[in-house]
Amino acid sequence: MVPSEESQLVPKEIESAADEPRVLCIIQDTTNSKTVNERVTLNLPASTPLRRLFEDVASKVGYVNGTFDLVWGNGVSVADMTPLEQSSDKSILDAGFEPGKKNFLHLTDKDGEQPHIMSQESSSTDDGTQDRFIGPLPREGSVGCTSDYVSQNYSYSSILSKSETGYVGLVNQAMTCYLNSLLQTLFMTPEFRNALYKWEFEESEEDPVTSIPYQLQRLFVLLQTSKKRAIETTDVTRSFGWDSSEAWQQHDVQELCRVMFDALEQKWKQTEQADLINQLYQGKLKDYVRCLECGYESWRIDTYLDIPLVIRPYGSNQAFASVEEALHAFIQPEILDGPNQYFCERCKKKCDARKGLRFLHFPYLLTLQLKRFDFDYTTMHRIKLNDRMTFPEELDMGTFIDVEDEKSPQTESCTDSGAENEGSCHSDQMSNDFSNDDGVDEGICLETNSGAERISKVGSEKNSLLYELFSVMVHSGSAAGGHYYACIKSFSDDQWYSFNDQHVSKITQEDIKKTYGGSSGSRGYYSSAFASSTNAYMLIYRLKDSTRNAKFLEAHEYPEHIKQLVQKERELEEQEKRQREIERNTCKIKLFCMHPVKQIMMENKLEVHKDKTLKEAVEIAYKIMDLEEAVPLDCCRLVKYDEFHDYLERSYEGEEDTPMGILLGGVKSTYMFDLLLETKRPDQVFQCYKPGEVMVKVHVVDLKTESVAPPISVRAYLNQTVTEFKQLISKATHLPAETMRVVLERCYNDLRLLNVANKTLKAEGFFRSNKVFVESSESLDCHMTYTDSQLWKLLDRHANTIRLYVSLPEQSPGSQFKRTVYQKASGDSASAEHRELENQIQISDPENFQSEERSDSDVNNDRSTSSVDSDILSSSHSSDTLCNVENAPVPLANGLDSHSITSSRRSKANEGKKDTWDTAEEDSGTDSEYDESGKSRGEAQYMFFKAEPCAADEGSGEGQKWLMVHVDKRITLSAFKQHLEPFVGVPSSHFKVFRVYASNQEFESVRLNETLSSFSDDNKITIRLGRALKKGEYRVKVYQLLVNETEPCKFLLDAVFAKGMTVRQSKEELLPQLREQCGLDLTIDRFRLRKKTWKNPGTVFLDYHIYEEDINISSNWEVFLEILDGAEKMKSMSQLAVLSRRWRPSAMKLDSFQEVVLESSSVDELKEKLSEISGIPLENIEFAKGRGTFPCDISVLEIHQDLDWNPKVSTLNVWPLYICDDGAVIFYRDKTEELMELTDEQRNELMKKESSRLQKTGHRVTYSPRKEKALKIYLDGAPNKDLTQD
């Protein structure tokens, strides 16, 4: 504890008493008031009264004093303890606190109520000077925040605690802030909440999970009664039929309001609430057109649930200043004249007319939508209008009701015809969301009244149309996305509150004014790009009418079903609280156990209450690991374990009755150690593991049998000497210490002989868990230099040997051979007792193999399996090992030949074939099995290899043969293949090796000079028959280039090209393969080969080019084969071949590709060639370079203006063209040709065709923002129904 913090806790009157005993108090908060519970340490004088202790704890933790209890927590259950007296003047010494010891206390709930969080607000007045938080919480360390939207001085704990306002927030599921804002507004509307409470759910008629009104009832009850800071809305969204993905879709709050009201109306049919939405939110207006010549008026009545108000008039940059101004514009009529004239039924001709809207009736709850989201036709993007628009706290709608319309008796007529009264208003901003009602006018009914009575009634209504604002739904952000929250006035105390998801706080009228929008003196939280983007989006007003304004129902006024629901939710919350209490007091730690029968390490999670004893924890672990039938309970114990180092840290002798909370060091979310359930046989005794010991796994090495025994565990101390350590091992292994050699494996392949007798284990590099090899024979080997000894060679082999499973082909062609192998050896490594008999191999004449050769496409139909070289994927693992092997050969001796196949037959297949190109000098990158002298690389040095048959895996094909191979992973792939020859039955040049990965994908290994160091134990290998690569050879994939086809890239076959071979020689070899495998009967001059980069055609290879000299070649190389229409025009490397395509704007289409061969990179030459093939006059030629991957597809609606036509350059190899290689795409056109004019219908049709065409070819059509998902509420809880209300 910081001394300065301690000093302030010392009572001043005894501060100078040096001999005052001190009492150390450790207080753990165990309540649910905060998500993160604090632990407070106080060092107090022994004379401190209990009253002062409570005050200090309250100050430290941040709770109101008197709202919590303190009980003893020294390993005793909280339920059994009596709380300390909070107001007592008794000293803590007299209360039982012990000086000089740790005194543990638990801070608990008082009388079942959670502690109250200490208010963070200062005592400043509500004059607007105090900054309040109403927007999104600013990020930690954010800059640019000023007084517009500044957070209160929230501490972390206060954010997580229940709001001091008494209101409960709503948890944001992901992007459901728009939903939370609307739900809080409905909850704070007395008329809606009361009506919802009066509706009774009938469980026999409907599933509660899918009942929207019932889930809203539950939510409102929780918002009213819960003690939590915020509650979840998942049950409500589930009743909407939404899944978890909907939580990540942000929608418009006004859209949600309309959809939710529609859903509620459907659910409330034939109930008392059937017309609730209309009674509260529905208004009426008249949509009219009046002839200015004869006065004839045509009209209809529409209903509305909200009034959409535009921020800016169409085509104007000036926004309306206020809501009142926007309302006047809404009912402002427009004149239909000129081409927009109206056909008058009375005049029987087109006449000038006035078109507009008139409000007939305003709803009780008036909803105004400020249309801040618009579409910018210049950028073709949605935008948000952040202009300032004021709105009053009280809005008089009497000025907007139409009285003149009600004076005329003709207004009583049907909806489709009018009379001679003149309308006075219209706006073209009518919302498309308005529902049409072509039936009888249900608005202000005037049929039975005289004209004077009508005027009186309407005048009376005008005087009573005063509305008060009570909800402002605010949007922060842009049209692309943002955040919603609500500012709501409580009708209970007329106080404004900010409901921002789980955060609820008090705000003032000044804070409401900050949501008007527009620029202000200082920027808000969303500064920089979205300055002042926090503004009001939806306003809800309530009619001021004392006869209709309702108050919230009191608890005693609740209907009986709501009282029962309140009680049910309280019980559920208490149950949840108790469960959380149990969870918080539960220790969760990883548990391991080596199964005594199966001998496999099992892993699980041990969850045990902190008050459970070690003995009880062992019983729980015993059941978790399901050891009832394997070992008795009294043969098990729990020990402290480090899984990472496989180290037993300590055992717990004599602590069987100690609570797990104390044993594990408290209840934590994560522990730095694990537990191991250790088992023993009934006749054994558990070993005592003391802290500070290190664990050593001792492997005994037998040089005679060349075997390494399974490990024996020994525990030692780091300060022991090597001599003492040998004595310890001698007792465990019964080997003489005098002749003992101990080798420590410090890390992989680092074998260190411990030969300094007085050196400590710590100095030798021992750590928590260690591995040593010991040998104690009296042979001459112990007198040899360690690195030359048989012990080192055996251990080196042991460290580098891996086990592989090799799948053999079902039958090798032309081979007859017999193999007899002893049964599989047991133990840690291969024993000399299990040796293969001499392989008897009889292989037919290698020439016969010619007919059996198959390409990769024959052997492996899935081309993708051989498209990536597995050795490339892990080449980083093999380079170092390869160097070590080459520089320091490790020939093994002493009879090891009996374990392995040390020689293999060399095939002379293809010997008679003249390989004129296979004479280039060898380099490190070649894929060859032979060195320069022709001697097999496998014979250059010996590497351990042992193979024996094994059972096939489940699911493998019938008749498939498997080998289990133990091999030194420093062996090269070439030598490995030679060792496999007797088992495959063909020379290594006639089979291929495929590495099998976890997903059962197979990749061919072709780098014969690389080692198996990237392989690990139990990897699988598949052997396939077929032509393998020789020195300087590379496997090449050949694709056909079809420039005018929808799919221009078509795979043909796998071929083998060699270093030093000319392009013409490779074409000659391809001819028979193309004929047999692809059905292409070509002559050598009818096709060309060219570079392939992804799908792009590149350099044309000329017949005299030589691979590796003129053309770089690599493993799994790819080339294009292009069939020519005529003679080859490309004769030299100075020429340039481009692919041209004519664009015809008058027909809105593109011609086929034509190749143009240029002698230079001159733009003038290109234009001349294009003029020749097209007939377009040279001066009218315009061209542009294609973009993207071949064939550079582009929509015909975009090509005319989107490409960079006629670049101002004289050569092709400069910016912005950079055409330096063959295969570039050039579009060209006649600049005098006019673009076809399209009707809207033609454009839409063409757009659909182009979109379909380009999507099929995988090319992007144009920029398209993330598609918005339509907001729907599914009344039956299933999203696959076609609902009429949607």
Question: What does this entry look like structurally?
Answer:
The protein is of the alpha+beta class and 1286 residues long. The chain has 27 helices and 51 strands. Strands 9, 14, 17, 19, 20, 21, 22 and 23 form an 8-stranded mixed β-sheet that branches. Strands 29, 30, 31, 32, 33 and 34 form a 6-stranded mixed β-sheet that branches. A 6-stranded mixed β-sheet has the order 38-39-35-42-40-41. Strand 29 and strand 30 (707-708) form a beta hairpin. Helix 6 (212-225) crosses helix 14 (560-584). The protein is flat, with a radius of gyration of 44 Å. Mean pLDDT is 77; it is low at 1-17, 120-160, 405-456, 521-531, 812-940, 1260-1266 and 1281-1286.
Care to give the gist of this entry?
By secondary structure, the protein is of the alpha+beta class.
Features:
ubl conjugation pathway, six-stranded mixed sheet, coiled coil, eight-stranded mixed sheet, USP_CS, 25% strand, Peptidase_C19, EC 3.4.19.12, 1286 residues, disordered C terminus, disordered N terminus, alpha+beta
List the helices and strands and how they pair.
Layout: H1 3-7, E1 22-29, E2 39-45, H2 50-61, E3 68-72, E4 102-109, H3 156-160, E5 169-170, H4 177-187, H5 190-198, H6 212-225, E6 230-231, H7 234-239, H8 253-267, H9 276-281, E7 283-291, E8 297-304, E9 307-310, H10 323-330, E10 334-336, E11 342-344, E12 349-351, E13 353-361, E14 365-371, E15 373-376, E16 381-384, E17 394-396, H11 404-407, E18 435-437, H12 451-463, E19 466-478, E20 481-489, E21 496-500, E22 503-507, H13 509-513, E23 534-543, H14 560-584, E24 586-594, E25 601-609, H15 614-624, E26 636-642, E27 647-651, H16 660-663, E28 674-679, E29 693-702, E30 707-708, E31 712-717, H17 722-733, E32 741-747, E33 750-753, H18 761-764, E34 769-775, H19 790-800, E35 801-808, E36 815-818, E37 840-843, H20 856-859, H21 870-873, H22 875-887, E38 945-950, E39 961-968, H23 973-984, E40 991-996, E41 1002-1005, E42 1019-1025, E43 1033-1041, E44 1049-1058, H24 1063-1078, E45 1087-1093, E46 1096-1101, E47 1117-1123, E48 1136-1144, E49 1149-1158, H25 1163-1174, E50 1181-1185, H26 1199-1202, E51 1225-1230, H27 1240-1256
Helix pairs in contact: 6-14
Biased composition (Acidic residues): 918-931
Organism: Alligator mississippiensis
GO molecular function: cysteine-type deubiquitinase activity
